Structure formats: structure tokens, C-alpha cells
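Hello again,

I reread your note about wanting to compare the complex against the isolated chains. To keep things tidy I'm splitting this into two emails, and this first one only covers the full assembly. Below are the input lines as submitted, including protein chains and any nucleic acid or small-molecule components. They are followed by the predicted structure of everything together. The single-chain runs will come separately.
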Amino acid sequence: MPSPSEITNAMMQHDYFSQWLGIEVVSSGEGSAVLKMKIRHEMLNGFGIAHGGITYSLADSALAFASNSHGQKSVSVETSISHTQSLREGDEIVAIAREEHRSNKIAVYSVQVLCHDKVVALFKGTVYRTSGHWE
Amino acid sequence: MPSPSEITNAMMQHDYFSQWLGIEVVSSGEGSAVLKMKIRHEMLNGFGIAHGGITYSLADSALAFASNSHGQKSVSVETSISHTQSLREGDEIVAIAREEHRSNKIAVYSVQVLCHDKVVALFKGTVYRTSGHWE
Amino acid sequence: MPSPSEITNAMMQHDYFSQWLGIEVVSSGEGSAVLKMKIRHEMLNGFGIAHGGITYSLADSALAFASNSHGQKSVSVETSISHTQSLREGDEIVAIAREEHRSNKIAVYSVQVLCHDKVVALFKGTVYRTSGHWE
Amino acid sequence: MPSPSEITNAMMQHDYFSQWLGIEVVSSGEGSAVLKMKIRHEMLNGFGIAHGGITYSLADSALAFASNSHGQKSVSVETSISHTQSLREGDEIVAIAREEHRSNKIAVYSVQVLCHDKVVALFKGTVYRTSGHWE
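Full-complex prediction:
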């Protein structure tokens, strides 16, 4: 069975949107993932700050890597995010995904998005664990 | 006071991420917004389907336009999304934002994301209505 | 296979908390449920209005009845609620559950809670559809 | 200005539903609250386990006490909960509310509900901080 890093690498290789975001995998483990990226000009919204979809996307990639790390293919069924702090161009952000609960079919993860150790977004995601496996 | 379309246009003009997504404004009204876009290759994830952040971003832009349409600057405080159907490259999607509740300080919106009249994502967003106004 | 009403009746018979709440089933159908109840003194919180758990509980019962109505036993995996209006002792409220999406394993429902045709709470619930059936 | 415990006591005194639930305040601090209660027969649902509204209600009370602890009256605007484990009659549960973010007008809290140190529910709540104060 592949390791968490092997699964994350396999996913990242074809994850063109995470590549566009400039996501780098800092670490990946059983049920966890740490990612980072930098806010670029084309990620801003009409208020001159990062679009809410940018931090969501980083957190959602962290959810995908953390939840697939056990080898069982998992798909998101419900996610929520609170944006607590605005981000500017050039800001570097880190997402830390943690497994809060895992049963046979359902698992729940929290993802903290930080900028200079300050929480900028709080994300919670629930996945359905399919019968498919990473090989 | 500017009209809903004038506000949406002013927001879109500096919303570089919505521009990158290729979002087109179909219509905008008091408390509502209808947007559309097409899934491109660089929007796919490791499963070969649209990254969850893409539909979230479209819905979040619809929330921003609908909630700012009354002239009072509004910021998202909490959003959630259920992805109910996978999307492939070339799929065209439409987001329809509707105001479910509005009080002085808080308002709630639902956004349906459709592909060929099939629901592909269900989004709910709560905003805080600041004391600033669009001019 | 039992009908939606037969399933709802079977569930209500042992649902001691829904009984304590004074929930009455107005109607039940395939993927839907309409319930009503009245706010009593012992349901108030420290602000003299209905505790948030009361409207949540009514909506959660509506979710349970609507999602089990197809005969497949279903359990809640994630729910969210926005309380948009305060409720006082004596207020009568109605919950209307609607199926927004249903696949083999996952289904999503929205529940509107109304008081005199005004929305007092907006609820969204995702369920996991188990392999067990109502008989 | 009253202390966190004085505010919690003042709220509990008129919180008839928290009293019905048998909620006991274990501790209260600036932005935090720890509560406990026991599952009784009349709290069960049609599956013979605690109704989802019971754990939600405990978590929602913890949110109310934690968010009002700073002296500024705060009202819930959006809450979500994942039920991760079933509860039986006689089970004792503890809710631990933690402040994840607080700005002038909006604050976000997470609440873990535990039974024998096992997570049975994960709750997230966003409040609006009004201009009213506890005296």
C-alpha cells in the first residue's frame, strides 16, 4: 500500500488547480497534511484582498490529501469555512489539516489556515470514504 | 445610490480572480445574482474533475454580488457548500444566489450551482453588513 | 415496503424527545416532511426567547423523517442552522424539509422553519444512507 | 463589569431549557465554557439513541456562555455540528467551548462534545457581538 506522501504526490501530479495556486506540500501523514502557498495579484477580489475561494481551495486540497492518506479513496460531502482575517498580495499562508474523527464510511477534518501564526480561516470538512483504494 | 448592476460591475472590475475564472454576470438585482462560467483544464484536481474550490469560488462571488447589491458593503462571515455532482472539463455551470434573510447587520443567502439544470453544489452564506456604502 | 407515513409513525413512536417537544406530523412524503410545534416556557433560554436547540431539534427531526422516508435507514453526518428571528413563548412554528439531492450513499436536505410565514431558521443537513431498511 | 462566572450564572438562572437538560457549569472563563449533562430517557429518538438536538443544545449553551463571557451581549448567527458517535441513556457528556477568533463584531467558537474522552460531536458557532452589555 502506498504511503501518505506517495498518495499526496500522485494526487498533486494531476491536480492542475492546486498547481496553479502554487501549493507546496510541507508534510503529509496518516490523516494529516500541511500545505503552503503565496497570495498573487490574480487571486484578489473586488475589495483588493484575497478572494474567499483562494483560502477555501487551499483548505479543500489539504482536506483531500489528509482524507486520502489512509489509502481509501475519499470524497468531500460537506465543507464549511469562516474567513476571519483579510489577506493581501504577497501574504504567505499555511493550511494544517487534522483528522477529528474517522469511521468506516465517514470522516471529519478541521483545517486551520494561518498567516504569520495568526488564524485567517477555519475550515471543517466531512468526507465519504468510498470502497476504492490508491494503488 | 448605485444600482445592483453598477455595484456588481464596480466589484468585477477589480475582481481579478473572478476574471481568471472566466465568470460572466448573467443578471444582478436587489439581493440576487446569476453568474456563469466554464470548467477549464487548469481547474481540475487529482481525480480529473473540477476542484471543489472552483464551484465554491463561483458561489462565493455570487454571494458577494448579491449581498452588496443593496449598496451596503457586506463581508462573508461563514459559508458552507455540499458538492453533489462531479464536473468535467468543458462543463458550463450557473450560480443562482437568493437572499433568504436580511436584517440590519446580518444577512443569509443560498446559492444553487447548476449544470444543465442539475444541482451540482448547494451553498449557504452568512454576511456581516458593515456601515460602509458603495458610491 | 412501508410508506413514508408508516416509517414516520414508527420513528415517532419511540422518539421520546420529539414527543417531549410536542412535535406533530403535518405530512410526510418521499423525501419530505412537514412538522409543527409550539414554544413552551421550559424551552426558553437566558434571553427569554426560544433556546437555539429547540428550532434545531425540530429541524433535525424533520431531516430524520424526510431522509428515512424512502425506506433506507439514514443517519445525519453534518447539519448547520442559521437562526434568523427570535421566538417567544406561545409561538407556533412549522418545519418544511425538502430533498435537495440524493445519491446512493449521501443525500442533502434543506429545512425551513417558519412562524406565521416568516423564516425563523434555515437548516441544511447531509445524511449517510446505510444498507439497513425499514420493514 | 461582571466576571465570566457571574454572567454565566445570570444567564443560567433564566435558561429554563438548559435547566431541563440538567446542564451543570463545570467552569467558565474569558471566551471559554465547560458544561456537562447526562442523557435521560426522554432525550432519546426513534433509533433508541440521543436525539441530535440534545448534543446540539448542550453545545449551543456552551457557545452562548463562552461568547457572552467578555461582557458584550452576543447572539448566534450560524452554527454547524457533526455527530460522530451515538449516545445511550445514562451516558455523561462534556462540552468544551473554545474561542477561535474574536473581532469587534464577529467571533467564532469551536465546541467539542466528549463522552469518556471520545469525541461524540464537533460544533462550530459564529456569533454577532451586539452593542449591549451585561451589567
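For quick reference: Chain C has a mean pLDDT of 96.

B.
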